Amino acid sequence: MSEHSTYTPGSGIEKWLDERLPIIRFSKEHLMDFPTPKNLNYFWTFGAILVMCLGIQIVTGIILAMHYTPNIGMAFDSVEHIRRDVNGGRMLQSFHAVGASMFFAAIYIHIFRGMYFGSYKAPREILWILGVLIFVLMMATAFMGYVLPWGQMSGWAATVITNIFAAIPFIGTPLLELLRGGFSVGNPTLNRFFSLHYLLPFVIAAVVALHIWALHVPGNNNPIGVDVKDSRDTLPFHPYYTMKDAFGMVVFLIPFAWFAFFAPDILGHPDNYIQFNSQVTPAHIVPEWYFLPFYAILRAIDFSLLFIDSKLLGVIFFGGSIVILFFLPWLDTSKVRSGNFRPMFKWFYLLFVINFIALTYLGAQPADGIYVVLSKICTAYYFIHFIVVLPLLSRIEKPRPLPTSISESVLSKSHA
Amino acid sequence: MATQAHHSTTRRDFIFVATGSVAVVGAAATVWPLINQMNPDASTLAMASIEFNLGSIEEGQSVTILWRGLPVFVRHRTQAEIDEAKAVPLSDLKDPATDESRTKEGHEQWLIMIANCTHLGCIPTGEAGEFDGWACPCHGSQFDTAGRIRKGPAPTNLVVPPYEFISDTLVQIG
């Protein structure tokens, strides 16, 4: 899709540059003239919103690193120092902390949009896989960032999550000590987490570049899932979608600002304002809200299977719940992309979303009684959706007829 | 490659493979120290062995001490707790171990265990749960009065570290 440029170098300098490094041509082709389906709805603005989120995290994060001290004796106090003493530090810290939550809110909407409209289907499998990879990198980055304030939740999150690796047979314990740099979570752990927390956002930025590259080969999917046929189906990215995305960003920033200004701690946990104590675990530890569904899956497995003990099995399910996303393009073999034209898929998709929200709720509840039973049911359904429901639907479902083109669908809607 | 398959292996092929192999070994040898620096350092390893005086711990009392940065429970068990642990048939246990195997002979009132839950490393709360031992607040594992796993996701009993009695009241851990 690189032959859509109408770029002709205007001045002598532009011509000179174009023959050596065609960066203006590239920008015009991909940021301005790029043909984009004309029927994209507001769910499609989340890609741009996510780029903005990454930008906010990197800028606020670099500033926070100027005032933060990665040492177990000083880390906790240095975060309080940022919040109380540093000029504007209160806002910078809350924008960074709230920003992580908003980033995850946006990526969940982005992922669920892709799942409903079949954006992972051919020829966009690599685009989807890169997206899942970004999600995994984000989880690692957010986890390590959460450890840095060195509160009770930070330290125990570090203990529990690094312990997941100890479940791996044979190499588990040496690997655990390698990750922690000691027999328990301590100063070496905090130091390396700080180093990696600074590194990973730039790795994410690089994978985002690949993700956008992979997007610009086939072009955007769209709400009816029908391929672009000719230029009547598309609009240039600028000004139509730059403006729509900008509007989406502004709307997204309203709840963002509300949290940051009025309730910066509402998404956090009071226990994290107590400095980490390796001898006392808080009575009820929970991860940040955006990890709860996966945490519920990890906790749901309290039984052994054959020669696999409950700990390893829990870790297998926990890892599997994310790894299975990589295989989604080959599990859902229905040729129809958009859920709008799949009468049965639509309902199972809704059920999957409700099940995912239920897992989020269950992850925050104590691990006993009815909650354990419900967690097991929801965990089972999470996997059944991918392994049984999607492949089966592709075979038995009779999709509704698709519109012949994007422009036809847009026009018929406006006449109706 | 298909056309080359007809030719016999030449000295040049051997040199290519040999050079490539040396490069791979060299790269691995270079990368290893870059990874190995993450392993526990000398100052961490130096804390490998400690001595602890049990004299001040009353019956029914527990203390938590640090060994290699890990919290360790030292519990002076009551006779009722010892009897309760001994009364459990091995067939009821997920990770079968006798009470005797978890203590030192002649010192069975002393239970010394690494305090991290064998599930994901939280510190269980003492004198809690259905089995009068420990209950982990994180994922609901419950341990009995010998620190053996009885319920919940933890796969094994609380770990007994290597230790020995130097005298009746002095233990060396590690």
Automatic annotation (TrEMBL), chain A:
Heme b b562 binds at residues 96, 197. It comes from the Bacteria. InterPro entries: Cyt_b/b6_C, Cyt_b/b6_C_sf, Cyt_b/b6_N, Cytb/b6-like_sf, Cytochrome_b, Cytochrome_b_C_euk/bac, Cytochrome_b_N_euk/bac, Di-haem_cyt_TM. A ubiquinone binds at residue 216. Heme b b566 binds at residues 110, 211. GO terms for cellular component: respiratory chain complex III. Its main location: membrane. Residues 227-404 form the Cytochrome b/b6 C-terminal region profile domain. It is found in: Membrane. Its cofactor is heme b; heme. Binds 2 heme groups non-covalently. GO terms for biological process: respiratory electron transport chain. The main subunits of complex b-c1 are: cytochrome b, cytochrome c1 and the Rieske protein. This is Cytochrome b. It comes from Devosia psychrophila. The lineage of its organism: Bacteria, Pseudomonadati, Pseudomonadota, Alphaproteobacteria, Hyphomicrobiales.
UniProtKB/TrEMBL annotation, chain B:
Keywords: 2Fe-2S, Cell membrane, Disulfide bond, Electron transport, Iron, Iron-sulfur, Membrane, Metal-binding, Translocase, Transmembrane, Transmembrane helix, Transport. It catalyses: a quinol + 2 Fe(III)-[cytochrome c](out) = a quinone + 2 Fe(II)-[cytochrome c](out) + 2 H(+)(out). Residues 85-172 form the Rieske domain. GO terms for molecular function: 2 iron, 2 sulfur cluster binding; metal ion binding; quinol-cytochrome-c reductase activity. It is a single-pass membrane protein. It is found in: Cell membrane. PROSITE patterns: RIESKE (PS51296), TAT (PS51318). Its main location: membrane. InterPro entries: Rieske_2Fe-2S, Rieske_2Fe-2S_sf, Rieske_Fe-S_prot, Rieske_Fe-S_prot_C, TAT_signal, Ubiq_cytC_Rdtase_Fe-S_su_TAT, Ubiquinol_cyt_c_Rdtase_Fe-S-su. Belongs to the Rieske iron-sulfur protein family. Component of the ubiquinol-cytochrome c reductase complex (complex III or cytochrome b-c1 complex), which is a respiratory chain that generates an electrochemical potential coupled to ATP synthesis. This is Ubiquinol-cytochrome c reductase iron-sulfur subunit. The lineage of its organism: Bacteria, Pseudomonadati, Pseudomonadota, Alphaproteobacteria, Hyphomicrobiales.
